[in-house]
Amino acid sequence: MVGIVLVSHSAQVAQSVAELARGLAAGGALAPVAAAGGTAAGGLGTSAEGIVAAAREVDGGAGVALLADLGSSVLTVKALLLEEELPPGSQLVDAPFVEGAVAAVVAASAGAPLAAVASAAAEAYAYRKA
Predict the structure, then answer these.
(1) Which of 33, 50, 37, 39 is nearest to 10 (CA)?
(2) If 15 and its partner were Cys, which of 20, 35, 43, 66 is the partner (CB 3.0–4.6 Å)?
(3) pTM to 2 decimals?
(4) Which residue, 65, 113, 116, is CA-closest to 91?
(5) How far is it between the farthest Cα atoms of the chain?
(6) Where would I find the H helices in the chain?
(7) Could you tell me whether strands 3-8 and 64-68 are parallel, antiparallel, or unpaired per DSSP bridges?
(8) pLDDT score recorded for residue 66
């Protein structure tokens, strides 16, 4: 299955969104999901080392979809991709963080390939709330 990494400036946000996505996708096989939030010292920010460790943790060979919350987390993931620090088949997914994470985990848990997982997450931009 495709692995999912949720990259946030806050460890609590990344962990909470991961828990929400896992809970909403429950009922069968569950794709591996890892939270990579905050700095190594426990503050707000991003940790390149934490992102790499999370990606390696969920990598099962089918690819890794990374969703990031804000500016510098996106830049950190892009830099790691350029430097080839992430597992082969890793992809930054352009999607809303919460809705995209849920869609990605549901799709990955259903056995979708990386391109379909990324597409499902990106489609969350079209979700209307009003």
Answers:
(1) 37
(2) 35
(3) 0.95
(4) 65
(5) 41
(6) 11-25, 48-58, 71-82, 97-109, 114-122
(7) parallel
(8) 98
Coil, helix or strand at residue 33: strand
| Residues written for the chain | 130
Taking residues 51-62, report their average pLDDT: 98
- Per the listing, tokens 């259903």 go with 110
Confidence at 94, pLDDT banded by 50, 70, 90: very high
Q: What's the mean pLDDT in 33-54?
A: 95
Q: Residues 53-60: contacts with CB within 8 Å, 24+ apart?
A: 54/5, 54/7, 55/3, 55/5, 55/86, 55/87, 55/90, 56/87, 57/3, 57/32, 58/3, 58/4, 58/5, 58/31, 58/32, 58/33, 58/34, 59/3, 59/87, 59/89, 59/90, 60/1, 60/3, 60/32
pLDDT > 90? residue 20: yes
72, two tokens: 């510098």
In whole angstroms, how large is the CA radius of gyration of the chain?
13
- Distance CA(51)–CA(99), nearest Å, equals 20
User: Rounded CA gap, 102 and 114, in Å?
Assistant: 15
